[in-house]
Design a protein that fits this description.
118 residues, alpha+beta, Immunoglobulin-like, 5-stranded antiparallel β-sheet, 1 helix, 38% strand, globular
């Protein structure tokens, strides 16, 4: 009987350990994708609502766009970890410089803020 109880205890320890190991990964999370977010601001550091942020895949030259929220924020998801991307923002004749989301940036969610200049 003692051997059987020890076997059950060992099985419970293994199951508990497996559950803990799996907690760091979200369901349906793809380890080959990442996202980028940030805030677009004007020269006085005020957030800019309605700015157009363009995300350009440097390899394919494909472009995705996002219009910033009322707090100046933007977000792009589902980006490859193996590709580099360029970001820039435009609003009412003002533009930001280009910023790069590098393949060397290993953050799951990178933050790149963009500042508009006339």
């Amino acid at each position: 009987m003692k051997l059987k109880a020890a076997g059950y205890a060992g099985l419970l320890v293994l199951l508990f350990g497996a559950m803990l190991a799996g907690q760091n990964k979200r369901p349906n999370e793809d380890s080959n994708t990442r996202s980028v977010q940030g805030v677009v601001s004007d020269a006085a550091n005020n957030p800019v609502a309605g700015a157009v942020v363009q995300l350009k895949d440097v390899k394919t030259l494909g472009i995705r766009s996002f219009r910033t929220e009322s707090d100046g924020s933007y977000h792009f998801a589902g980006l490859s970890t193996n590709e580099e991307y360029e970001l820039k923002a435009d609003h009412d004749g003002a533009t930001s410089g280009k910023k790069t989301l590098s393949v060397f940036n290993s953050q799951k969610t990178a933050t790149i803020n963009l500042k508009l200049n006339k």
